[in-house]
TrEMBL record:
EC number: 7.2.2.-
Subcellular location, principal: membrane
Cation-transporting P-type ATPase N-terminal domain location: 146-222
Coiled coil region boundaries: none
Pfam families: Cation_ATPase (PF13246), Cation_ATPase_N (PF00690), E1-E2_ATPase (PF00122), P5-ATPase (PF12409)
Alphabetical list of Gene3D superfamilies matching this protein: Calcium-transporting ATPase, cytoplasmic domain N, Calcium-transporting ATPase, cytoplasmic transduction domain A, Calcium-transporting ATPase, transmembrane domain, HAD superfamily/HAD-like
Membrane topology: Multi-pass membrane protein
UniProt keyword Ligase, yes or no: no
Alphabetically ordered keywords of this record: ATP-binding, Magnesium, Membrane, Metal-binding, Nucleotide-binding, Translocase, Transmembrane, Transmembrane helix
Keyword Magnesium attached: yes
Organism: Pan troglodytes
Catalytic reaction equation(s): ATP + H2O = ADP + phosphate + H(+)
Protein name per UniProt: Cation-transporting ATPase
Amino acid sequence: MGHFEKGQHALLNEGEENEMEIFGYRTQGCRKSLCLAGSIFSFGILPLVFYWRPAWHVWAHCVPCSLQEADTVLLRTTDEFQIYSWKKVIWIYLSALNSAFGLTPDHPLMTDEEYIINRAIRKPDLKVRCIKVQKIRYVWNYLEGQFQKIGSLEDWLSSAKIHQKFGSGLTREEQEIRRLICGPNTIDVEVTPIWKLLIKEVLNPFYIFQLFSVCLWFSEDYKEYAFAIIIMSIISISLTVYDLREQSVKLHHLVESHNSITVSVCGRKAGVQELESRVLVPGDLLILTGNKVLMPCDAVLIEGSCVVDEGMLTGESIPVTKTPLPKMDSSVPWKTQSEADYKRHVLFCGTEVIQAKAACSGTVRAVVLQTGFNTAKGDLVRSILYPKPVNFQLYRDAIRFLLCLVGTATIGMIYTLCVYVLSGEPPEEVVRKALDVITIAVPPALPAALTTGIIYAQRRLKKRGIFCISPQRINVCGQLNLVCFDKTGTLTRDGLDLWGVVSCDRNGFQEVHSFASGQALPWGPLCAAMASCHSLILLDGTIQGDPLDLKMFEATTWEMAFSGDDFHIKGVPAHAMVVKPCRTASQVPVEGIAILHQFPFSSALQRMTVIVQEMGGDRLAFMKGAPERVASFCQPETVPTSFVSELQIYTTQGFRVIALAYKKLENDHHATTLTRETVESDLIFLGLLILENRLKEETKPVLEELISARIRTVMITGDNLQTAITVARKSGMVSESQKVILIEANETTGSSSASISWTLVEEKKHITYGNQDNYINIRDEVSDKGREGSYHFALTGKSFHVISQHFSSLLPKILINGTIFARMSPGQKSSLVLCQCRCKLILCFQALKMAHVGISLSEQEASVASPFTSKTPNIECVPHLIKEGRAALVTSFCMFKYMALYSMIQYVGVLLLYWETNSLSNYQFLFQDLAITTLIGVTMNLNGAYPKLVPFRPAGRLISPPLLLSVIFNILLSLAMHIAGFILVQRQPWYSVEIHSACTVQNESISELTMSPTAPEKMESNSTFTSFENTTIWFLGTINCITVALVFSKGKPFRQPTYTNYIFVFVLIIQLGVCLFILFADIPELYRRLDLLCTPVLWRASIVIMLSLNFIVSLVAEEAVIENRALWMMIKRRFGYQSKSQYRIWQRDLANDPSWPPLNQTSHSDMPECGRGVSYSNPVFESNEEQL
């Protein structure tokens, strides 16, 4: 795959999360025929291999060619997994439209190559080449020579172009062409038929191996265990298929309502028509009427405004106001034409339009932006259908482990062939015995045994109200070492309490007006701002909206209503929202205030503005937002000189502070014609709104538990930096003895290059500090730099963006101690989490798809994409999840070790017996496989998680030295014991190949017994298995399997002690009791059934002694060496071993760097030292900024 023909290789979705490499191939008839013949002669094995290896299928059937000529494409993901898949190139024929609309290659619709859809049509035969990958359709762009996504409006379109081209709707011909090429606007998730799920599950390599094993066992008349494995496999397959079917049905019900919505579509010539939503195409003009409308696609609002419930996407059912896309003359793409977030103009698929407010034309119009799986809801569903693979070392090590067992089995097969061929055994017997070795060395029950631990952990989590849709991620939780928290609603309570308001005049700030006193706020611009500067709506007589807006409005005791038909003010639409003072209010000179227009709040702008009309009074504009942003739009003389210190008083106490400002407007302008830039200038500062956002009771204890377990905690919030720092200190995320270092980075301005400065935050010293975003106390001098871990970095989203762009080499150093990230936009949050993922294993409450483990505290539809969902709305679920993850991980290791030892014990025993051309009988195998190992495999995993989080994690790899040493040592110990038993039994005075029992008869000595050929009893059984070696090896192997289970069953510090697992202990006692009973029972019928020979009591005692010694040595080695963490740490220090993880390397570099952290310094991007260090690129930063 290293050399490609010209045009054979390209990138699909370049720079996006689902980026793939695409290769062109052409099917060859002769290759296809050869593959067909190979499939027949291999009895279906070749197609099975092709099913497992899609790339091999393409390479066998096709020859490389350019993508333009390809009839098959091979796709490979560009992530570390490099997953292959292949797709057939299909043709879409437009000739059907020829007769209906007279479409010819010369038709104006065909010749206009401005849009991708026209560039994809091949002339003159009017055909389109396309492929469908993960539910998204891609067409071949003949002009650019590449496959491009279809089903969306082009990103390069300017707002003027959208208004001009799509403002009047599409013609019927355009609609039909787009329907044919883009496909239906549906999010189809078919309920997968049970037979399909069954076939997919059965074709798993593990079950194919089980099928091979079962066929072999039936040929050897080993029916009992074969039936047991069949029953276990049927149960396992049934449970998996049931689970997958349930998920499929649930997802189908989640999206089916989306596909059957009736919408009003305006055609260029046809006018307004009622159509099914499935026929919508990008560019269609939607007419939104009435309330409670579910959006069937993504659409950009071009006229009127809407109030939308985006709970499906964000997990928060807070009404959001959407404004029309302004028509601007600029040719800049519409998404980047203003500094505000473009999403405020977009109605996303799956969200509910609560209210549609018409503009002067009387309609609310929106242009369809994206359809089907290209939409926001489609993207959410695709993330569930095609989840990100789990990149965890354990699973890669498990494959290597199985390959090692296969290698061991191969050696055993060669040994078996040599022994049996030299012994002159029949060929079919030789082959059967050789194949037997594979089923012994590679235990078919291994995957089933491993999944039981995860199933038990999932069940325990469910009892605690934590639900999991991706069970394999439970093991990943055991390795987590960093948790990213949101602030509001996660660390602090959801609701805000209005604490007070600080108004100001020319003399500065006034006394705080406390709402707890019950006194009403006196009338004035500040009261008017609180009553009208919000995005609240009146729905079914109930006021709904953002909790902050709701608290602010309730504090005024005003009322909300719609204006009547008699309400006629120039530029004010009928049925406008009006706020009025309540009847009990006195000394309010206005009847009410009509809200004419809103510029909604966005996290990028950190503010919102409204234009209002006092009834019988002035037209005003009110602004509300982050204090530092609002102050920057105000006339400097209106902002009190004590602004910074006043703000600091409240933010250092953890209050959330909002600033208010206003200005008077001219009455002769229409409200909607005013631009945001015009309105948001020369404002008069009004004062500060103080809101209390208390910590949840559970927050501090949980954070203390995580920190004491050396799990780093990070806060990512959209709130003020000082408030975030205060919450971090109050919650214990930053302890009292630790320093907080503020990092400020500024973009390139004029002649000066980008800069970064480092300042120590001091809590008690108040100084005037007038920078744009961070009004906090700074300490000028600091004597000690502080050792690693004694300081935390705090920075804003703006600084993070600048550092990512201009100081990428510093980013990993900052992330190692970066704890507080404030004023972060959604895109910046995703980017930060992705950066952190490269350093550590992360659990996250934000950017759920980006983290290794995402957990949602919401039961909204958006949370279905999260691997974990907690019904308890606080962070108590985090320690539980980590504890269960650690327990499940340790359980997986225990099972790996046990299954390895069990297979090796059987393998060693059988190979020793093969030396004598003997083996274990079916009943002997059955007893070991079913009565011992299966029961242990089911019960060994029942230990719960240990209630305390310890300050270290379990090993994350199977090939870690302690685990490898444990397995190898115990294999060698068992091998030595088996060889000793095998040799010693042959040297016993009573041993004879011809004797079938050596039990002592009363009053007879062993010597007499062995001298007299008539004394021994002859067994009636003619079994070929019975021998003293067989009996000795079977007892040693069977009881060894029990003792090894006890040695490997780990308790503290990650699981509950073994003695608390009562079922497991009971099973071991019963098994050991039964084995000892068989050993000492002297019951001829029982021995005959199990193909055992009676041996002298002394030899039986010798077997027990050998097993006891094995158990004691194994247990001592396991506890004193393998599990002795202090010893391994000492060995590491002695040999100078250092972790090779990138995070640890950076950590060591910083610890040895005397100049880190820099304090009271400012560096510029063009300085040579800023380029030093590890380069840390972040190519997805911009693309993440674009994602919802």
